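Re: your question about ABC transporter ATP-binding protein

S., sorry for the slow reply, the queue was backed up all week. Below is exactly what I fed in.
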Amino acid sequence: MKKVSVHCRNVRLSYGRTEVLKDVNLDIEPGEFFALLGPSGSGKSTLLRLIAGFNPHQHGQLLVDGKDVTGLPPWERNIGMVFQNYALWPHMTVWDNVAFGLVERRVEKAALRQRVGAALETVGLSAYGQRRPNQLSGGQQQRVALARTIVIEPQVLLLDEPLSNLDKTLRVQMRQELLALQRRLGITTIFVTHDQEEAMTTADRMAVLDKGVVQQVGTPAALYDHPVNTFVAGFVGTMNLLPGRVRDRRGDALTLDVDGVGDLHIPGAAGVADAPAADALTVSFRPHSLRVDAADAVRDARYVWMPGIVEASEFLGEFTRYRVRVGAHSLAADQPHHAGLSKFPVGGAVSLGLEPSQVRLFAQTG
Ligand SMILES: Nc1ncnc2c1ncn2[C@@H]1O[C@H](COP(=O)(O)OP(=O)(O)OP(=O)(O)O)[C@@H](O)[C@H]1O
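Result:
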């Protein structure tokens, strides 16, 4: 199958006075597995439905394989969409559900039989053709919905929260299956999710949306390592954010008055050298950039130390995630697990050591 690109150019959409999509520009490469990630109400589904042709077109352009499909009805776009609730026909067998799109397109009988059989085989449901949807598990229903969409051989596959109806274990298994299937078919796929882990583990690249604005586009690793703003930093992975004001700035050393914490002196941090020249800055760092030590331990001078109180701890096998109250803030700190290492009890005083080179600074906006 030919792999095609998808381009959104200056796409805008409003419902009444509410602007739901604000000048969206996206370039999706042929054969990519692309995620639209964002919180509830950020406009992900609206954008997906617009690409499918289900939403009225208001402003901007949509190109599939370089061709302008703006304004074309859904059935002329050669785009397949799997809905969140699967939308299977309850009174039809699995076979008839999958065959439906081909019957509508008046595909002749022998070709139809061959294509439905192949689609069911692709999703591992050859033996289930005569069942009805209510005789299937959630994961199997999800596969029927996929088979029903890929059988029409769309150039682009759109998936709206495809795994959200499944329990956690099945979701993890199905996302790998989905990715393997997408790789096998080579079909350009755009999927919507609010689950950052789902996007990070599967997507080639992703776009993070907030309030109808694309905040950043890139590989999961690029967004994790180099978020452009505090929204992306906080939405992709876990990020500690401490807002403060610049007190002193000398060379690559910075002293910040952090709200509720007091002065934080950050020497020689890579992040300080290219810090925005704003008065109000937000200090950000990942949980693994903090080390937890006993309150009375000798302090290693390579770290910036802050006193705190343990609020909670979660043992996650390879590491323990501590929640530590520092001034008015609750910081996440991940400590690698070594057998026999003493745990810091909830309610106890600790010292948090921050690696200066892991700090990233953002100008405060708004
Ligand atoms: N048909 C509609 N009429 C009016 N407002 C709408 C309509 N559809 C969506 N909206 C609004 O547009 C905004 C974006 O909705 P959308 O469903 O695209 O968000 P989302 O990011 O997919 O959220 P979720 O993850 O909750 O599905 C929301 O504020 C929603 O209330």
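Residues 15, 20, 38, 40-46, 194 surround adenosine-5'-triphosphate (CB under 6 Å). The two ends are 47 Å apart (CA to CA).

Happy to talk it through on Thursday.
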